[in-house]
Every structure is written in C-alpha cells, then in structure tokens.
Write a structure and sequence with these properties.
Shape: globular
Low-confidence stretches: 1-8
Number of strands: 18
Number of domains: 1
Structural class: alpha/beta
Strand order of the largest sheet: 3-18-17-12-11-8-7-4
CATH superfamily: Aldolase class I
Strand content: 15-25%
Helix content: 25-40%
CATH class: Alpha Beta
Bound molecules: flavin mononucleotide
Number of helices: 9
CATH architecture: Alpha-Beta Barrel
Length: 313
C-alpha cells in the first residue's frame, strides 16, 4: 500500500443517511433557494453537496405572485414568490437531464392545491428513477376546503401525507410549517401517516411596511420570513420535533455558517438545509461543509454522526 493515503484516513467521516438516502455530508440546499441546481453549477461543485433539493414543483407551471415579492428585513428576508415553478412536465424534460449527471442524490420538493393534486404529483415523481427521494411541502392551502393550510391542521396533514404515501415508492421527507401552536402534534401526525423523515422549518409568516408610502413592502401583503432572524426559533422547533418522533429530522432555518449547522446537528438533526445564505453567497454551502470538517478535526471527532443529538443539558 502506498503511504500517500495516510492523510485521507485522518479525515473525519461526514457521511449521513436520511430516510434511506445516503449523503456524502449533511449539507443540502433548502427548496426554493437553489433553483433546479443548474443555476448554481458555475459557483460550486454540486457533487460536493449532501443532496440537491429542487424548487417546489406542481402539476402545472406556476407564474407566482405579483412583484415586489421579496423584501429585506433585519437579519432576514420576507418572500412571497408564490411557488413559481416550471411544473412537473418541464422539470422531467428540461431539468432532470442536467441533474442526473451529478453523483449527488436529488430530492424533488413538491406541493399541490388539493389532495388529488398532491397525489398526482407524487405519482409522476415516482416515475423518475434517478430521483433519490421527495420532500413534501404541506405549507399550502387546500383550495377545496376553505383554504385551510394542510400543515397547520393535524388531520389535514395526516391525510395529505397518507395520499402521497400511497402514490409514492420513494423516500418521503415531509416539511413542516412553524406557523402552528404545537409543532409536535403535526410531526406525530405525519410520522404516523408514513413520513420517512421530517424537515423543519419552512418560513414564518411576517409583514413589513414602507412607512413613507404606508404600503406593505411586498405586493402579497404578507410573506415568509427566512434567514438568521428565524434560526433560534428553528433550533427550538427541531429540538422539540426530534423528541416527539422516531424518524430522522432535517434542520432548516437561518443557517449561515458551520457553527449554525452544528447547532441543529447537536439538538438532533440528522442533516441540514441552507436557504437564504445561498442568495448572499452562492458558495455558502461549500464553506459550511469545509467548516464542519474543520470542526471535527479540531475537536478530534472521527465521525460527524457522533455530534448528532449530542446536546448536553
Ligand atoms: C425565495 C424563497 C423561496 C422558497 N421556496 C420554497 C419552496 O418552493 N418550497 C419549500 O418547501 N420551501 C421554500 N422556501 C423555504 C425554504 O426552503 C426554507 O425552509 C426557509 O427559507 C428557511 O431557511 P433559511 O432561513 O435558511 O432560508 C423558500 C424560501 C425562500 C427564501
């Protein structure tokens, strides 16, 4: 054996597994902040990521909300993009060919406006062999039931996950909304309905006003708050969810650097997603992956999984 391999063997193991999806490291983009992957290829090597998570897909293409639909806030941003996306057909025809060339697992985020639509998109996604798994966004209103948001009602959340589970033969990650009184009730409902993992959190509903015009800063009036401002809330919610369910949890919310990602791992997240940070620095995820490795080396940790759920109380 050549002696040149010695250094490599000292590198910590960053690999994790979420819902049966093997990842080289625990870092992946948060849906909607990384396009369909290709947009970021000029900035970082997609093969270095733990997984690629796509923009939320729907049955038909969606134009999204009127502009302005993004506003910067203190330590965060508000967005009301309105789930603009190319739709499942264009995704399969024009986005998957690029994605299937990477050796990183691809996770398709998706949503629907009715139970039937959720089921139909799940069925179509099942037909894409190269998809490693899906992430179900349940932060959407059910247009057939008075606009109740699926993810804010335990019964509706259970029902939508069950419908998707029946149509899907891939690992299913269910993404929770923080806009609820007790997230653990929803987490248990989606676990019972067949979720293989849970990601949390989606954005928190917020509002911001231009005091000179006295108008909301975004045309939709309200939007989803993301970025560092929400991180302590996200860490708390992940901490609660980890204790409520047995399935793995993916932590999302305001991660800007490796230390932020570590907070989520320590409270028990098996992996993390990076969102708003990608808009500030498109290489943020690579810096975070390198930072996690450096942290492990500095603290004599041979396997990052030793950190997961290592919270001291
Ligand atoms: C511009 C924008 C678009 C988003 N689109 C989606 C989406 O399509 N589906 C989804 O589940 N979450 C979406 N999200 C929520 C993010 O995936 C993430 O949960 C949230 O932004 C919190 O993480 P962050 O603070 O790191 O950005 C979006 C967020 C932003 C800022």
């Amino acid at each position: 054996m050549s002696g040149t391999r010695t250094n490599t063997s000292l590198r910590p193991n960053l690999a994790v597994e979420v819902a049966g999806i093997a990842m080289k490291n625990p870092v992946m983009p948060a849906s909607g902040t990384f396009g369909y992957g290709e947009e970021y290829a000029p900035f970082l090597d997609l093969n270095n990521l733990g997984a690629i998570v796509t923009k939320g897909l729907s049955l038909k293409p969606k134009a999204g909300n009127p502009t302005p639909r993004i506003a910067e806030t203190t330590s965060g941003m508000l967005n009301a993009i309105g789930l603009q996306n190319v739709g499942i057909d264009v995704f399969i025809k024009h986005k998957m060919p690029f994605l299937r060339e990477t050796n990183t697992p691809v996770i398709a985020n998706f949503f629907g406006n009715t139970l039937d639509e959720y089921g139909e998109v799940a069925r179509r996604l099942s037909e894409i062999p190269e998809l490693a798994g899906v992430e179900l966004n349940i932060s959407c209103p059910n247009v057939k039931q008075g606009g109740i948001v699926f993810g804010t009602d335990p019964q509706a959340a259970h029902q939508v996950v069950r419908v998707v589970r029946e149509q899907l033969d891939k690992p299913l990650i269910v993404k929770l909304t923080p806009n609820v009184t007790d997230i653990t009730v929803i987490a248990r409902a989606v676990e019972e309905a067949g979720a293989d993992a849970i990601s949390c959190i989606n954005t928190l509903t917020g509002m911001s006003i231009d005091v000179r015009t006295r108008k909301p800063k975004i045309a939709n009036r309200t939007g989803g708050l993301s970025g560092p401002a929400i991180r302590p809330i996200a860490v708390r919610l992940v901490h609660q969810v980890v204790q409520a369910v047995k399935v793995p949890v993916v932590g999302v919310g305001g991660i800007m650097c490796a230390d932020d990602a570590l907070e989520f791992l320590i409270v028990g997240a098996s992996a993390v997603q990076v969102g708003t940070a990608n808009f500030i620095d498109p290489t943020a995820m690579q810096t975070i992956i390198d930072g996690l490795e450096n942290f492990c080396v500095a603290h004599n940790i041979s396997d990052i999984r030793q950190l997961i759920g290592s919270l001291e109380l």
